[in-house]
Write a structure and sequence with these properties.
single chain; 10 helices; alpha+beta; five-stranded antiparallel β-sheet
Length: 496
Amino acid sequence: MKVWHFLGVCLLLLASSSARPEVSETDYFAVFMEGKKVGYAIQSRVVAETKVRTTINMNVTVSRLGFPITVNTTETHIETIDGKPLGFELVQELSGIPMRVTGTVNEQGSINITAASMGAEQKSTLDWPSGALMAEGLRLLQLKKGVKQGSTYTAKVFAPSMLQAIDARIQIGPKRNVDLLGRVVALTEVTTAMTMPMVGEIVSTSYVDDELRMQKTVMPMMGMQIEMVACAKEFALGQNDVLELINKMFLPSPVPLEKVGSAKAIAYRLVPIGDANSPMIPSTDNQSVRLGKDGIIVVTVEPVAAPAGARFAYKGKDKAILEAAKPTRFLQSDDKRIIKLARRAIGRTKDAAEAAKRIEAFVAKYIDNKNLSVGYASAVEVAASRQGDCTEHAVLTAAMCRAIGIPAQVVTGVAYVDDFAGLRGFGGHAWAQAYVGGKWVGLDAAFKGTERGGYDAGHIALAVGNGNPEDFFVLAKILGQFKIDKVMVTKKGGSI
């Protein structure tokens, strides 16, 4: 489990938080998780001639088993004074090495995008989402709509960190007395529901003053309360508390599971907690999902074997599978360093199943510094550092598969562990899956070097994607919203 899951949402909230027209002014916010100060956010807006630049910087530090992880994200929106999008710049420092993504909106209504990290660069073009707004456009919309209690309006918000538009529904509530770090102020309540792909709604509650300046925002995530509170610069940039996240990454198991790697299949009964909606869990070649009464879900995981005799590269026409063979900003499969590692791993084999297995085993040994100190690294960064945890294993595995023409994806979910820092249960995890002979086959390089031997029925997939940080929103939202109350193991041979 990583720590950036909520940053994209927080940046969206900050981008829409300042409705005042002043030129070149800066706001500071303290960021809290579970009541502990873990970082800061800074927002500035500068008008120069016909352009408006809105910059949002967020810096958060948490601990994982004593390893401090700092995530620093800076997002700049460039627009005309009437709110027309012109471009953006995003700099993410997730593992000490910056990744920069820039985008320019052209006259044809497309976005020319460049993503660069450690000399690896990808260029792409996307259609600008019709009607999507960025920071200045949102500011102008807020001024137009006002804060009349009971009013509701919608907006489509472009998020540079996700390279997509997010649908937002804003509802104006009553005035309430709100505690701002010991100072009680009457503020207007604003509820924002953002609908995100694969995730569903993420709802936050903000409190704004009479000038529509955000003073506080509260958002649930990972079973915690995340807060941003306006404050003095000195406090925002001051000392942080230490928040240990490991216990937030685990779901208890109703019973101990023995020899998980030898199970043919395992069925899990997932029960929503409180008023939580049923999580959106994908069906894959390795797991089936059945929705029952009262939001209860039964997920049955039965790993498929890689068909022998399949060749690579993929020659089919399925658009989704072809997409899983392309390089991305975190899976730089066209980089010469990744290609070299992939060829070194597979040797002379022409069999796709054998090649995928060799890549899995290669990554398991290649990452020789296995620790929790990395915030999040791209495949190129992992190839250079040779360190990281499950996510670094997953992105390198997927990128190396793509480099030789085997479509591959990064899967996020939970996996059973018998003992991790004294915890037993289902922990946040990432692995890969490769398309071999018409089947998506699970690959877990992080588990490959353990007695588990790799991917098995102890894995529950919650999302599948290209390894981008936003893919982990599903995991961040779902953890804390359901529990596993029953586990049914089918052993090889059919016995339970």
